[in-house]
Structures are given as C-alpha cells and as structure tokens.
User: Fold this.
Amino acid sequence: MKDRKRHLLVRTIEIGKRISFGLILVFLCLPITVDAAPTGRIAYAVSGFNNKLGRLDFNLHMTTFTEKGDFKTTPLNQSGMYPAWGPEGDTLYFIQRADTQSHIFSIDINNPKNKTLLTEISGTYRFLAVSPNGKKLAFNGWTREQQQQENQVWVLDIETGEMEAVTAIPHFGRSFFFWGISWAPNSRQLAFSLERPGGLDQLYLLDLETKEIEILTELNIDLYPVWSPDGTKILFRRWNREFDTMSTIDVETRAIKPLFDVDKQTGMWTDWSFDGQSIIFSRWGAFYLHDLLTGKTEQLFEVEGSIFAISWWKHEVLPVEPKQKLTTTWGDVKRTLR
Assistant:
C-alpha cells in the first residue's frame, strides 16, 4: 500500500513537472506585443506662411519625446528643407532656398537663431544625408555654374567646405531627378532613388570608395530610400496605380517585404527608430508610428501645415559589420536601361 502511494506521489510530481514545462514552452512561443513609444527627437519642415518673407515657406521644427510618453514641439525659427541630424543630436543640417538658388546650412539647436553656411557655391540642392561620423554630407543637385542635366550626387566635407561629385551618371540629353538619398551605417555606401528613361524610378547603391553603382530594384517606381540603423534593410515607398506601398528590402538577399499601403499623393516621409523596431511617417500634417513587431500603427500628433521631410535622431548606434559585395559599374548598368 505504501509503495502504491509512493508511486502515485512520484507520478503526480512528474506530471506536474511536464505540465509546468509545457506551459513554459507555450508562453515562450506566444507572440510578444510591446507597445512602441517614440524616444529621442525628430526634426522636420512644415509648410506655412513666413512673416519675414511675406510668403509661403518651409519652416523647421523639432519635437522631443519624453520618457513620460508625451512630447514637446519647438519652432527652430529657420526656414529650410530636408533637415538631417548630426550623430550627436545637437547639430541640424538643412537646405535653405532663396529665389532660384539654395545653400546648405547648419544650426546648433541650443542656439538655433545663428546658422552656419557650409556651401561655398549656391545651386539647386535637394535631399540631405549626414555621414555616420558627422564629417560629411551627401546630397544631389547641380551648382549655379551647371545645367540641370548635370544633376549628380555630391559629398561635402563639412570642415573644409570642399564639394565632390561622386557620380557621373549620363543624362542622355534629358534632365533627370533623384528621389531620396540615405547614408549606410557602415559609411561605405549611399542608397538613392533615380529617375531613368521610361518613367521608372529605381533604387541604387553607390560604393563611395570605388564609385561603382549597382541596381538594387528594377522595373518599378521606388522612392525615398532610408537605411535601417543596423544596415541590413532599406525602407522605401513603391508606387502603384491605385495606392503606394511602404516596403523594406534586404540589402544582402534583395528580398522585399511589403509593410502597409498608403494613399497616393499624401506628402509622406519616413524615418527609422534608433533600434530599427519601428518607423515614423507623415501623412499630410500628421505623424504616425508603425510598430514593425506588431504591425500596428498609431497617430502621434498633428501640426498646422504639411510636413516635408523627417529626420529622427538615432541616439544609439548599433554595431555594423561591413560586408564584401559584388558591384556593377555604371557602364554596365546603363546598357540595360536603354
């Protein structure tokens, strides 16, 4: 009788252990939902009336998200477009246009009234990306001494003011435009969107050391690339007839993952969070946060006017290991585009 009771007790304990272990496995396999909360600060331009100029203009603003989950918005009292944070988060770079020409400036956000001129020659400059070490700026455009057909990607040395055209893309006798530029976290590459003959806007990668260019996407209209903080993916917007789709592309495998559809012509801009787990995007005058883990989107806040370009200060840098990759020279690429 005692042996039978002992056997039943041992068996009950074993069954209890198995049930507990099974419950642990079940809990481990359940999807974890984490409410994303923005941190750090974003800079952006808002279209509105400029009292000093007496006309509509783009004015720079900064919104800081606090640990309490709320936020504070500050006008920077500067007209400008394409804001881009320096790596330390205290310097903001932007393009300011006057009449038909533009220059690149920087401001210290602790004293935003004073701006520093960085370009020695004016031109038509668009989009702006800061190198990971904060020493160089990448943008596209042409100088006042050039024609529109000479539109290229440029790199500006912030300390010396020297500008270098890092592409020599043939124009085939027609004007073309870039639609976004982003600096890789490994400092070696730039991603950009470029309009080509046939009405296609494709994503390309530029190796800054060799000046070689390779196609990242083909036979679509892909716009506004933004590199993820870990350097593995690029966020971009793919044009479709009825709607556009926000997607990511794996830089190594070229696998494209659609995220969500957006209305066309909504003035939409995006940027990654510092940990790569969420993205912030605009739709007209409202900001939204999209959690990549849960697929959920929430509206953050609205502004008076339309948002133009977003830069989210990535206050934590993730380690990136450069990868060896085959590249294609532009001479090889252009033969496939004719």
Q: What stands out?
A: Residues 2-29 form the longest helix (28 residues). The helical segments are 2-29, 330-335. The chain has two domains: 1-30, 41-335. Residues 153 and 241 are 29 Å apart (CA to CA).
